[in-house]
Structure formats: structure tokens, C-alpha cells
Specification:
Oligomer: single chain
Strand content: 15-25%
Number of domains: 2
Helix content: 25-40%
Number of strands: 13
CATH architecture of the largest domain: Alpha-Beta Barrel
Largest sheet: 7 strands, parallel
CATH class of the largest domain: Alpha Beta
Bound molecules: N-succinyl methionine, magnesium ion
Radius of gyration: 20 Å
């Protein structure tokens, strides 16, 4: 249905603790929400989408300002034209978006809002629409680079006390073997442990990276720059530890290329990064066809993105614990209902659409900029 109005809201939420990676440090979640308001059978229906971009291009080439511009100048006008014409909205929207090069994060934010509105109007949960079949999702926790080894062990101990059973450590050159060994010594060899370098290494570091695997790692995530698929293939040929790609997988096409090159033994699927939940499902299906396990990654989303990620994570080839942690790991107050960890699992909401109950007062309080388009 054609939108009554479309709003972009830049929102800022304080993080309960800073999150440091090899790319920088974040102390607040500062991103963009899209609200696609349409006429439902019983009045207006709001679809919400959350953008995965950061205020700066630290992980992806897009960032909040470029996403805002892409949406106001190109993608929302295009979506309005598509919505004004007859026929099913989502398939025609995806066809129209496919003619616009790149900008997966901007497309994902708008497509998610449209998808949420359509499914709420139809009374269908996103998990049903996507084909999810799990009513509880195994999750882990991603631990940033701390101020000290003691700080790291305190954080990991705290998360294990919270009930998380899979730990992912951020690493970078100079902070890798020591923290991994310390966590192994403190918490034992059976702790499911993986690392994420966020592109910080180069092929000259391959001999060093090979020494990391004596610590029994589940995965080594994105050691090299996103566009260097060949470097990942070279490492994967020598490393027993599965190589997992994140930033490199920007579309179904790059997923297919990475798989064909043997550059990825596992994929961190992030709907925002690949252009939305429907493409994320295609990446999931392609990986499944090649026997490559996936997990649903995270961008410190608010409950709006978290609810949708949980719906996606119910698909059968998400066999590795995801980076979808409980709300309290990120925010003291969220924009939706809280998601609580139960035995290292989260329960996806079952309501129509994302199932997120958006607290419009909290959204208003968190809003730093509002654009109608
Ligand atoms: C903004 S977080 C940076 C992206 C990072 N995400 C995580 O480590 C998970 C963060 C989370 O718990 O949402 C990754 O490269 O996988
Ligand atoms: Mg990653």
C-alpha cells in the first residue's frame, strides 16, 4: 500500500559499556530508523526499519549521513513511485532497488520498514514469512577490546554468569594471542570461543594467525580487508580453524564468489550489510546449499533490528550461535520490549511483522534529527 508518510529518525542511545574493535570505539548507538506509515484495515500501520550504519564509515562504506541522503534523494522517492503503481509492493520494490547500484545499508533500512508494514497489515509474523522454524535462538556475546586483561576476564566472567555460552573476542594486531590464551586459561578449553579481527590483519600476518589456532577457536572472523577475498582463501587453505566472513559479504553475488573461492567456511549474515532480510535469506540458502554454516551477526541494534534479526535467525542453516545478545548487554532503556537471555537463548517475538512493540515515546526521546520524505 502507498505510504501515508515516511519518516527518517536519527536516534542515539547510550551503550551500557563502550564497544571497542580494531576499527574504533563506540560509546553510544547512533543510527537511523525508517518509519513507513501506511493505511491499514483498522487505521494507520507503522512499519519500522533500522539501519545498520554507524555515524562514521568504520565498518562499511555507508554511514548515517550517506544513508540519509540516499534515502531522501533516491530510495524513498523510488519506493513511493513503486507503491503508487498497482501490484505486490515488495517484489516490485526489490526490482526497482536492484536497478540502483550498491548502498545495501540504505536499501535494507527502507525495505525492512516496508516489509514490517506489509506483514503487520497482513497479520503475519516475520519469522513465518521468512520460513523460520525455531521458537528459541541460540546466541552468544561479542566482547570488545577492553582496557586491560583483567577487564577482559571480568567481562567474560560476567557474561558467562549471565548465561552466555559462546564468547566472541575482538582482536587486532598486538591484542590477539594473549587475550585468547588468558580466556582459555581462566575459563577452560571447552568454552566455545571465536575471534573477530574486523579486517585488521594483512597476508604478511598469516604465519602469526596460524599460531592462534593452538587455542581451539570456533571461527576466525574477517581477518583481512573486506575486498581481499583471495587473502581469505589463502589463509583458509592453511588454517584448520574455519574462516568466517562478515564485511566482505555485501550481496548474494559476493557471497557466491567468496564461497567459490573457498574464502569462507562460515558466514556472519547481517541483513543490513547485504541489503535486507530477503537477500539475507538468499545468502543463508546459498550457504546451506554449499554446506557452509551461518550465524546472524549484530550491529548493536536497538530492539527494532534485534526483533527482526531474531526472526531471521530461526532459519535452519543458522546453526552457529548468533551475535544477538540480550537487550541488557547494550542498553539500559531500549526502543522496544526487552529481550532476555534464557539458557543462552533468546525468544523471537511472535506478533505480526517484526513483533517489536515500538515505544514511540522512547523513540521521540532518542531522536536527534527527524526528516520527512
Ligand atoms: C557495531 S558492532 C561492529 C560489528 C561487529 N559486531 C559484533 O561484534 C556484534 C555486536 C553486537 O553484539 O551486536 C562485527 O564485526 O561482527
Ligand atoms: Mg564481524
Amino acid at each position: 500500500a502507498r505510504p501515508i508518510d515516511v519518516e527518517l529518525r536519527r536516534v542515539t542511545l547510550p551503550l551500557v559499556r563502550p564497544f571497542r574493535t580494531s576499527r574504533g570505539e563506540e560509546t553510544v548507538k547512533d543510527t537511523l530508523l525508517v518509519r513507513w506509515r501506511t493505511e491499514g484495515p483498522d487505521g494507520p500501520v507503522d512499519g519500522w526499519g533500522e539501519c545498520g550504519a554507524d555515524p562514521e564509515p568504520i565498518y562499511y562504506p555507508e554511514y548515517v549521513d550517506t544513508v540519509t541522503t540516499a534515502l531522501t534523494d533516491v530510495l524513498v522517492p523510488l519506493a513511493r513511485d513503486v507503491a503508487a503503481a498497482p501490484g505486490p509492493l515488495l517484489p516490485r520494490l526489490r526490482t526497482a532497488f536492484a536497478d540502483v547500484p550498491g548502498m545495501p545499508l540504505a536499501k535494507a533500512a527502507l525495505e525492512s520498514a516496508v516489509l514490517d508494514a506489509e506483514l503487520r497489515t497482513a497479520g503475519m509474523p516475520l519469522s513465518t514469512y521468512l520460513g523460520g522454524h525455531r521458537d528459541r535462538i541460540a546466541v552468544g556475546v561479542s566482547v570488545g577490546i577492553p582496557d586491560s586483561l583483567d577487564d577482559l576476564l571480568a567481562q567474560v566472567g560476567g557474561y558467562l554468569d549471565d548465561g552466555y555460552r559462546r564468547i566472541k573476542l575482538k582482536i587486532r594486531p598486538g591484542w590477539d594471542a594473549e587475550p585468547v590464551r588468558a580466556v582459555r586459561e581462566a575459563f577452560g578449553d571447552d568454552l566455545p570461543l571465536q575471534v573477530d579481527a574486523n579486517q585488521a590483519y594483512r597476508t604478511s600476518d598469516i604465519p602469526h594467525l596460524l599460531t592462534l589456532e593452538e587455542n581451539g577457536l570456533l571461527l576466525l572472523e574477517q581477518p583481512f580487508p573486506a575486498d581481499d577475498l583471495l587473502a581469505h582463501a589463502r589463509l583458509a587453505a592453511d588454517l584448520r580453524t574455519p574462516v568466517c566472513l562478515d564485511e566482505s559479504i555485501t550481496s548474494l553475488g559476493t557471497a557466491a564468489t567468496a564461497i567459490a573461492l573457498g574464502a569462507t567456511d562460515a558466514i556472519n549474515v547481517k541483513p543490513a550489510r547485504v541489503g535486507g532480510y530477503l537477500t539475507a535469506r538468499s545468502v543463508h540458502d546459498l550457504a546451506a546449499a554449499h554446506g557452509i554454516p551461518c550465524f546472524c551477526g549484530g550491529m548493536l541494534e536497538t530492539g527494532i533490528g534485534r526483533a527482526m534479526n531474531l526472526a531471521l535467525a530461526g532459519l535452519p542453516n543458522f546453526t552457529l550461535p548468533g551475535d544477538i545478545s540480550a537487550t541488557s548487554r547494550y542498553f539500559a532503556h531500549d526502543l522496544t520490549q526487552s529481550f532476555e537471555l534464557v539458557d543462552s537463548h533468546l525468544v523471537p517475538p511472535t506478533g505480526p511483522g517484526s513483533g517489536a512493540h515500538v515505544d514511540t515515546d522512547a523513540v521521540e526521546d532518542a531522536t536527534t534529527a527527524l526528516t520527512s520524505c
